[in-house]
Design goal:
Blueprint (H helix, E strand, L loop, with lengths): L2 H26 L3 H27 L2 H33 L6
Length: about 100
């Protein structure tokens, strides 16, 4: 991964953490001024997060992740099917007592 993409990924992680904290403040703060400031900061952070995600998408990183996850899903599906077939063979080979 190039340095620019790495920086955007780290920024996404940081912004998500900030959004979580700001969400708690907007939900739990009894102080209206603090809550209003948190709402403004939340909106700005969310906008920055969208910019980072857009940059990652334009670099092709999100598509690459989807391709990789898709291939992993197919691999896991094949493994699960194989395990299921082995389990079925094992059940046939070793009938339960009383069968």
């Amino acid at each position: 991964m190039n340095q620019r993409a790495l920086n955007h990924v780290r920024a996404v992680q940081d912004r998500l953490a900030r959004l979580r904290a700001l969400r708690l403040i907007t939900r739990d703060s009894p102080d209206k001024l603090r809550r209003d400031a948190a709402i403004i900061a939340y909106s700005r952070t969310l906008d920055s997060l969208v910019e980072d995600l857009t940059a990652l998408d334009e670099m092709g990183l999100l598509s690459a992740c989807l391709r990789r996850l898709g291939s992993r899903t197919q691999e896991f599906g094949a493994l699960a099917a194989g395990a299921h077939a082995l389990d079925a063979e094992g059940q046939d080979a070793h009938p339960k007592a009383g069968d």
